[in-house]
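In this section we walk through a basic example: taking a raw amino acid sequence and producing a predicted 3D structure, encoded as discrete structure tokens. The instruction is simple. Fold the sequence below.
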Amino acid sequence: MPAENNANGNKNGWGVVLLCHGSQRGASRDECSCAWSADGPRFPAWCLGCPNTPVGLREAARRLSESLSDDAEQVIVSCLEFLPPHPPEAVSILAEAGLNRVIIAPYLLGNGKHATLEMEEVLEDIAAQAPGVEVRLADGLGADLRIADLVRDRIAALPDAVRHPEGGGPVGILVVKAGTQTRYDDCLWLKELGSWIERDLGDGYAVSVAQSHYGDPTMEHAAAELVNERGVGSIICAPYVFFPGLILRRNVLGTMRQLQEEYPNVPMSVAPPLGVDDRLVAVTSDRVRAAQKGE
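The resulting token sequence is shown next.
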């Protein structure tokens, strides 16, 4: 994927690798939230036209380059899987451009294997292939109030009748991240994010969090909590993923259809994914600047 360059032309500063998971899926709306048709028309008017992963990541890198301004000379997208360049190649590209100080900025929505064990392997590979480059690892996105605000906006994209249905009980919000094994991510940060979302949504909402597959808490457990313990009258699933793709279509939407069959009297809807947003870019910018300062 191409790099994003700052316009000042100075090559004595920092380079940034926006490190993502990567996917070649999601080019069709069939793999996005608007394909959900259990409670409304297929491809409804609120569809945001979410980009697929390659397009979305290029736009995120462009915005990050603008946000960092004089703090970074060049931003390049790198993916752990599927899409080149992979991290060692990305660092080599920056080094060939004269940038020997590089920040690895994980653009990952979680603290699972990719953000922990695999990140150690990434840094070892970079050190072996680019020994003359100073490499610093920034913190990942994690739990942040700005991202909680973005999730609320995605819920707000749905029609008012979905967000405020007639009938008793609060509206349940099911925040679902891509799955990872529990031994790699205890999801405490996700529970904190869910508590922020519930607090800011206010009365009439109940929030539970889940993983799409592999680990706890499961979507089935979270839905049962909302229905049986918190007495919700409807459920909105808020996919905590960047873009359309296999995980959203197969794991999130697939499980939502199963849940709708299990709870036929509880209307269910699915909000858009996170997509490209300046709040995500701002969080990443803060993480990059902190790494530059050695914080």
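Looking at the output, two observations stand out. The chain has nine helices and nine strands. The beta strands are 3-5, 15-20, 74-79, 101-106, 134-137, 171-177, 205-211, 234-240, 268-270. In the next section we compare this with other chains.
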